[in-house]
User: Fold these one by one.
Assistant:
Number 1:
Amino acid sequence: MTPMRPSWLEGSLVLRDISDDIARPLDGRPDPSWFACVTASTIALGIGAACVTYEVATGIGTWGLNKTVGWAFDITNFVFWIGIGHAGTLISAILLLFRQQWRMSINRSAEAMTIFAVVCAALFPLIHMGRPWMFFWVMPYPNWRGPLWVNFRSPLLWDVFAINTYLIISLVFWYLGMVPDFATLRDRAAAGVRKHVYAALSLGWNGSHRTWARYETACLLLAGLATPLVISVHSIVSMDFATSILPGWHATIFPPYFVAGAVYSGFGMVLLLLIVTRRVMNLERYITLQHLDRMSKITLLTGSLVAFSYASELFTAWYSGNLNEGFVFLNRATGPYAWAFWTMVTCNVAVPQLLWVRRVRCSPSALLPISILINVGMWFERFVIIVTSLHRSYLPSTWVMYRPTAIEIGTLIGSFGLFFTCFLLFIRVLPMIAAWEVKGLAGARAASEAHGVGV
Amino acid sequence: MALASRQFLVATFSSESTLRRAARLLRDSGFQIHDAYTPYPVHGLSELIGVHHSRLPLVSLAGGIGGCVGALAMQFYMAVFDWPLNVGGKPPNSLLAFVPITFELTVLAAGLATVAAFLLRCRLVPTTSADSMADGTTEDVFALALRQRDATVDSSEVWSLLLESGATNVTLKEVSR
């Protein structure tokens, strides 16, 4: 019998098998390939830590910034990482509200990705401050420096609140989702330290239906809150640019354009992470080819929105008749940073067109390079928006070129190191698939099969 | 608190459908079910057990209103009364510019209030020990518990009803508190 709808779980429906599979990476000795990945990412993290230490000790002058180009690599990285996080919230919150069953085996790792990406993102404004130990000055707290408060009219402050709220709500949502799984792990663990840790983390969870009923309400409420939150976060990030009067930044299309781009790049990263982990952790029967197919479709949709935004920006630059606006876009496509612009267009407009083909959407080996190119493209999008708008604006006497220094490149490498190290540790110490949700899927299917009804 | 123990009749099942069938049988025979213990949320049990709609949305709403009012009050006090700084000629009371932070703090307060209320209401705190009614309810065992107050736990009718409906095991359990 061919199922009417795809089944999101292949193989055995026995509940104990599911927890065995999900708990296995936490128990056994990891695969040599895991050690290889951790070694590589720790080296990258070390490079980043050295660069950041040098920068903090010496000053922002170690970066290639100048009076004209005051934002470049650091803010590009910030916007890039904060965007990556958006796919996680889309999967865990928006798809929950839409009752999409395929989110169940990927939501945990996507949420983890969100948290690590937000942490990586927060690093960049922090080190750009020059004196990161004064970070708390961005918070409105009572102080002895006279009546002195933060500027609530600044989008940069809005960002502080948006990103902190996003990080806190994502962490809470992530932890809450893991509580039932911690209880399972607690009951599986032999007496010892691990059992105590799981016992504390599981908060005395015993699977009571009264608790489950409230739990589902709480999760639904959090999803309802996280949905507008995630849209607001990248909208506010885009306002860092859009509320300025700089040609190339001052555009009303920015909030939806940035949100679409964020989800697009985030799905690129989810694809990359899951294609690798499903293989390394032997989770192919949970993260199936059909999951990859669905994620590719969302990537294609959001990629098309991004392409539409590019076209709309170019059209407006021409149709508005505004000389400055027109020049910025001509300079992007034909100026000294044209190579970055065309990299962006190739990766974000041309490459995702391959996803129209079903065979590509279901092929991990084809999706892996595509997902990497999407991330490259989206990084360059932010670079193009930031650097090409700044380096040649209204006053030709201020025109300069920007070149990143080795320290800046090292910091970018370090942020990837931080992200992948966190993710690799996560798949080793926490259940990377929501066991209780997958069990619910399996149990419901077993129940309906027992009644002879197809799901 | 005096040491009192409560008796429960606990029946275990191997699947959600047998659990649901047993719960329906018990309810139809007039027995009150104390609670069910399942490895994942089984839908349709709430009506059989008598779990009412959660009032968590109200907590969420209250938290949201608190966050919204608090954020607006904070921004008005700081930017309008205490330190009316002229930024780009904008008026001190630039309400539109206060919207993003108000929104963020509304969501933050509503979310944290919801989770805090949920955890406290269900007594889920790190020091709680899981007083499990039956082994394996977090793994693959589905259990129903009847309280002595609600059912005559030693009445043969309940025992036979449970065993008929496919229970793998029926036991008496004392929970001390």
Number 2:
Amino acid sequence: MTSTIRARAPRPIFGRKQSTNPVIRAVVRHALIVCALAILLYPLVWMVAASFRPSNQIFTTLGLFSSHPTLSNYTEGWGAGRLNFSRYFFNSFLIAILSIAGNLISCSVTAYAFARLNFPGKKFLFALLLGTMFLPFQVTLVPQYIMFNYLGWINTYLPLIVPHWLGVNAFFIFLMVQFIRSLPRELDDSARLDGCGNFRIFTRIIMPLALPAVGVVALFSFVWSWNDFLGPLLYLGRSDLWTVPLGLKAFLDSTGQNSYGGLFAMSTLSLAPIVGFFILAQRLLLEGIATTGLK
Amino acid sequence: MELKGITVNIRSRTTTIAAAAAVALLMTSCIGGSRTTEAQSAGSAGKGEVKGAIGVTWWGGDQRNRLTNAVADMFVKEHAGVTIDRQSADWASYWTKLNVQAAGKSLPCVVQLQGRQLNDYTKSGVLIPLDPMIDSGAIDVSDIPKAVVDAGRGTDGKVYFLPYGVAYDAVGINTALAKQAGVGLPAEGYTWDDFVSFLTKAQPNLPDGVAAANLQGGIPGAFLGWAQANGKKLFAKDGKLGFSKEDLIGYWNMWEKLRKANVTMPADKAAEELGPDQGFLATGQVMAATEIPGNALTAASNTLAGNNSSQSLTTIPYPSGPNGSGATALSASGFAIAKNCQNVPTAAAFINYFTNNPSAGKVFAADNGAPSNTKVLDAQLADASLAATKKHELELYKQIVAANPPIIVFPPKYQATFEASFRRNYDEVAFGRMTVTQAVDKFFSEANASLGQ
Amino acid sequence: MTSGTTPQQTLTKTSAGREATPRQLRWRSRKAREAAAAYAFLTPWLLGMVLLTLGPMLYSLYLSFTRYDLLSDPKWVGFANFVQMFTTDSRYLKSVGVTLVYVLVSVPLLLVVSLLLALLLNKGMRFLTAYRVLFYVPSLIGASVAIAALWRMIFGADGIINQALAVFGIHHSSWVGSPHDALTTLIILAVWAFGSMMVIFLAGVRQVPRELYEAASIDGAGVFRKFFSVTLPMLTPLIFFNTLMATIGAFQAFTGAYVVSGGTGGPVDSTLFYTLYLYLQGFAELNMGYAAAMAWVLVIVLAAVSGFFFWTARFWVHYGDE
């Protein structure tokens, strides 16, 4: 960055030339933001509120509060269909956790190799990695289906989990590469002097320091897996294998106006883990997310 | 190095995690495995021990799922050693899933089908004929009307699915609204022209926001009814369209006239309508709806009652042709057996049980049309606790069956191509993006390109 | 630890042809060990690359020249699929049009909205963390079935959007039911999830060195000038990154269109996204060869678009270390 150093003392950016009261400016700014947030989040809040209203009152009001709050949508919606949502939630969790584990392991080892090691073909392979980040998934959709079909993996969770154990998410690898590159090499060097091999350096030094990146990968892995719809649509035919998105979709089709209550209740429950997880970990994550675009 | 202490932890933690992950992975491949259990002797005549595992798949909403599962539970109870793996889906996803399962030769043993799609599957040979099982008595059809059994035949004449529930398309009318509009019900034997004037007369007297009819120019079933009433051939021998462009032009013009006169729902509202049990007829926004399946009467009436108890619905047969011709066609649903089934005797036994067993019939309560088995049907009608709307549906069915209705043999790709294309092209007209002639031309070229292949 | 190019020499001779010294040998074998270790670390990814990416891509290329319905063997038809796509299949061209409109409208809107809000949030204010979190939530859940279902409902003829408009005296027909508006609901859905882009811009904006703004102030620059001459140029790498990712993402959109249109592509194909049409062709009608051909056309188009982006980046992206 270049800038000439001025001879005078640095002036504050907003000096006495300012005409409006800074307090008013701040208030206006906050007001604008809150307005924007209100509009943005209203549908979501409305849906949550609607899930506590009796079914026949859902469509009648724009407002949030009802005279007869009820939990019936939750109890009825939960038990919808033969296999209720407890099964769907369990399935979604199982797939998500296994996917997260796979992603963390496979993406971090790959990232370590690209960030810290040298080997013939590195440039080519890294270009390949970047290329796959931009590859549309449609081009592998059909052949993967055919392959999994041939292996007999249809109606199992394997097609949804195994790819994550093989580093198929180039975005996560790239994210971790950028992060690991930012860690000082002196740590590696001193560990090597102590006789550590690559694996030890990886597990004892790099990974513990890469927590923000790990957090980002874990969160996104969870969100993408939890929200994944096309994968389960293709591979999970049996209703006892369904994940939450499939359960919600079935809800939508087989019911109508009078059962939107149940749909909203289940939707609220399906969104809660994501939002909750995020809010708890947000400071760590937002820093991590923000820095990836910058390097 | 102070890291040594951490080393121990990390390492043991890593191995534990790795072990747990491996176990979990193994677990999931077992949980989800669809490999069939011990292969039974294929027994094409359906005779053999009834035990082991079969898969059963069907489409439906909440209620249908519940009832079907109840019957499956009963079957399992009566036949120790049998397990049933149940797969259900909503109508739209059902066919996509079935297609890919058929392609992967991993269809469940017992597959629910209708005539409309049957020949997509018989063409690719993924079902086995049920005739040997009928002959050997494993599947009993003695109490099923011949016309109904014939509804399960494929293009080669063999029976591929056994109808258990027979539906028919009907016209639904909201009697309270009809009275308010001063038109009552159409007279018996009414024609399509009568129906049009019936609707047009009613519209001015209906409350604001209520239309006389649904916009159903794009519903294939309604068109089939009209075509049959007017003596048009539906499909040619090779599966291509058997009626002429002028026929369809006339039909769509009829609906366009109604739509432009605001006698029907506007096109955009019609586009977001949900299924018959929650559609506009059921919510009192429309006075008449063509092409509601007869068995939706009860569900739709319940919805209506839930909203506005003073109104009620009834169904009447389709309009007939100019000389009283054209009886309502039947539309049967039933179970078929997949070729890749490893447990044919149990599958056949299940189908037989579902269709013929009186207690099963009682539990299922004619949820998918009138029971094909006349004894079961009569038992339903004799039941004093039967809802009035259900009774009406079943009696109307008997009336229709007695008139020897035609059975439509649908060519392959009917459901995937004809229906989708028909709807879409009519919508182009309804939204004012194409003229009727253009849309008809487009429909003909799209349909004829794929039908029958 | 050295970094840089890897030696290509044999293990025992130097480039000058002389016998290597023991020190050089140790260095080379260390290099070899490093390479071996690297490949060991890369094993999962390499496996995945071959089995799940490259292999399928090649197979997909082969399939795009065949007719294949999974039931019988693939039948070679040469370029017939591609010809059909561009000449006789009007639904294909329709899906291309729908997707292009979606991309060309939603991506710029996303950029503008997220940049504006990032600027608004930029002043180290109270509640910044809370605001950031709240803005981010929609983008976490925007691609879910739950939100798509909600969207379908609120944009219906009697949904809350129309109810809100009615308060202002505007009577609108059903959004999801009419061909003009159905796509708009999906664009709104895409822009609703601008939070993730905003967070990245926010971080970028906060990293612009204060000295630059001070220098500009001293030169008499007002707010707008400061934005266009300082903020915007400094943000160009991020704009580039965000635009590229958003464009590629938009071309691959599926869940929203599927759920809002009920799996059909909307009233008269007005929400028939490219991916949705590909899915319907491949999995509903079992024209897998045709679907593969569609996928490859998309790959080529995206490669061209990315290539174009990278090439033009030269002219407008300023990296801070130049």
